[in-house]
Amino acid sequence: MSKQDRPLLLSDLMLLVVAVVWGTSYGVVKSALVFYPVLGLLALRFGITFVMLSPALRSLRHADARTLRGVFIAGVLLFGIFLSETFGVLLTRAANAAFLISLCVVLTPLVEWMLLKRRPGRIEWAAVALSLLGAWLLAGDGAIVLNPGDALILLAALLRALNVCVTKRVMRDSALPPLSVTAVQSGVVAFGSVAVALLFAPHQWQHVPSFVGHEPFWASVFYLVFACTLFAFFAQNYAIKRSSPTRVALLMGSEPAFGALFACLWLGEKISLTAWVGGGLIVVASMLATVRWRKAVTVGVPRASEAAR
């Protein structure tokens, strides 16, 4: 493996860990919503994240207006994602949410093609098709009855595809560190949640549960902050800077498999054998996306630099 490939391998591994972490987040969020409403939970989760990352905002002093606008738009998209996703999780099963969000794997190549003018390769399209087949099986032979919560998760999937491509453009055209981008995104989600709660849903703005007697809630909040937000978004932004949006989406395509597994173990939701097969196909599609397919210079004889990989 060459030195040039090592950052890409590191980002790939980080994204696979993010897929595991985000897969568990649906069950954790559903548990936390028992204690606290959606907008309050979002404000708390991203408010803590924003405060912790606020020192990284110093890098914005050297950013131009176009970069700042792009980062802010990425933050607004992220706010839309979590607004749709969290209300969606409240209104549907965690396993349903984990399946439907995986459709961003199918949508991302189309959005990337439209916004970034990069046409995905044949291997990427094959991985997308395999991931879509796995997601269909994961839903139980496609026998999924859509409800308002499912529709919100579908909207979140589309917004995810847009967000990855917008963030890619920002990271490609600027030298902003990933932590600075994560800090801005967290601030937009936190303040956006507070604003929406105060203006449109005052009942969502409630007293924060005390530490005493609400240990499961705070354990969920800290897990969402440190694992699902701080680490996950840093890893995603780090990877987006070094890879294509389609590759990022495919590597995180195993998220629904882990989400279904966690929903089964944590919430007791029933998962069929067909669904497990579908989850396996999604994982295979993610692994397929990590392979760097190259053409050998001489037929049947790879170059030494490629053989070392």
From TrEMBL:
Cellular component terms per the entry's GO annotation: plasma membrane
Chain ranges passing through the membrane: 33-56, 68-91, 97-116, 123-139, 151-171, 183-205, 217-236, 248-268, 274-293
Subcellular locations according to the entry: Cell membrane
Entry keyword annotation includes Lyase: no
Xref: Pfam families: EamA (PF00892)
Membrane topology value: Multi-pass membrane protein
Stretches assigned to the EamA domain: 11-138, 148-289
Keywords of this entry: Cell membrane, Membrane, Transmembrane, Transmembrane helix
Protein name: Multidrug DMT transporter permease
